[in-house]
Amino acid sequence: MKFFFPDSQDLVDPSFDFETEKRNDTRIRQRDDLYAHEVFKNPPYDGMLVSMAIVGGTNGSSGRYTLGQQRRFAVEGARAFLRLPKELKLMGDCGAFSYVKEPVPPVTVEQVARFYEEGGFDIGASVDHIILDYNADWDRSLPGIKAVSEDCERRQELTIELARDFQKLCRKDKVRFEPMGIAQGWSPKSYVRAVVALQKMGYEYIALGGLVPLKSSEILQVLEAVSPKLKPPTRLHLFGVTRLDHVKEFAQHSVVSFDSTSPLTQAFKEDRDNYYGRRRRYSAIRVPQVDINLKLKNRVLSGEVKQAEAFRLERECLDALRRFDRRRFPRRELIELLNEYQQLFGGTRNYSAEYEILLKDRPWEECRCAVCRELKIDVVIFRGAERNRRRGFHNVYVTYNRLKRIRARVA
Ligand SMILES: [Zn+2]
Asked: How many angstroms does the Cα of residue 367 sit away from the middle of ligand 1?
């Protein structure tokens, strides 16, 4: 089971000083900043997934790359641009989430195939249109009563047609990447229908899309329906799914790969469980930046909070955290201080219980990854992109190592 990490230009600046929070003045982002596979001695994934929508954007959504980066990406190819080690695989897709609200995909089969070929991808997914509805009961609808919407059916039909055109084009142009067909569905039976159609077209690598919001039991339902229809050497990829508890079952249903960005985004987009420990997940410690926090700025302007007081408390919190790390500051007082600072921001959520567990366990001390070694307690501080993204990298590292242990047992 291979883990692909989706690229969305998440890099960290190695010149960033966590004590002073200053960077090297001469730093150039794309040249000097590091990808997760450059931060650790061994890359924490088996490959990267690059979406055309992230690079160049699609109609209606802009990408994550600047025009200069897009040019370099096109000239150098994806692998050189991402500085991806040669043993890692490069998978490409359209990034269908970016145009999910459009009536039809705003990209053509030709554009997408050219993007993969010029970028030097190993695997390239067909053009798809995501179906957001899922209901297994629609497989049991009574004769004459139609439960599934026309929009679902239209999206599936379109995705199948686009896959047919894509496969034809890839054969005609003798592309160097392996074409991967995408199946969209709304129920186990509808996924079967899509997969069977793709297999008939000659696809040997098929991705199941639209699974992100599904429960694990529903994903398994789909796989149980699909896998008996697969003929060797057909194998499956799951888009946007990290359910490590089910890797063994996934493997039994011919799933060979998945991708997910959630270990990274969990670090800074969620309210809790931001740091993956060995036995459990922990909420990171909020120490927002006084000078960029809008909520606080408004409270200062309205006279509710004195700015000097805010700066003083911010400094005190950071100092106390470092001293706590060196066992020179008591836990109780630290939590009180953090709460006092939190109240300044008008925060209503109380994290005391979660901080208590985190500070008692000190999980960053047991982790041997390069991020935790360098950052120490800073890795669990929710503050600014340099800390938050590194914590995300740590989560990716933990996820991959867990996957490797599972793989060793399954194989
Ligand atoms: Zn770590």
From this structure: 5
Structure-token pair, residue 76: 């150098």
In a domain, 1, yes or no: no
Cα of 372 from ligand 1 centre, angstroms = 4
- Ion ligand 1: residues, Cβ under 5 Å: 367, 369, 371-372, 394
CA distance 106 to 210: 18
State the catalytic residue, choosing from 33, 46, 93, 378.
93
Within this chain, do residues 152 and 292 fall inside the same structural domain, yes or no? Answer: no
Asked if residues 180 and 205 have their Cβ atoms less than 8 Å apart, the reply is yes
Say which residues have a Cβ less than 8 Å from residue 372's Cβ, sequence separation at least 6: 364, 365, 379, 394
Q: How confident is the model at residue 320 (pLDDT cuts 50, 70, 90)?
A: very high
Ligand 1 center from residue 394 Cα (angstroms): 5
The rounded Å distance from CA 371 to ligand 1 centre is: 5
**Residue 192 domain boundaries:** 46-260
Say if residue 68 is in the same domain as residue 188. Answer: yes
CA of 410 to the centre of ligand 1 (A): 25
Residues 218, 98, single domain; the answer is yes
Total count of domains within the chain: 2
| Boundary residue ending a domain (226, 260, 294) | 260
Decide if 165 is catalytic: no
322 and 386, same domain (yes or no): yes
Lowest mean pLDDT: which of 96-100, 271-275, 373-377, 390-394? 96-100
Name the phi and psi angles at 28, rounded to 5. Answer: -115, 120
pLDDT tens sequence across 120-131: 999 999 999 999
Annotated active-site residue 271? The verdict is no
Q: Choosing from 7, 33, 259, 378, which is the catalytic residue?
A: 259
Separation of CA 302 and ligand 1 centre (Å):
41
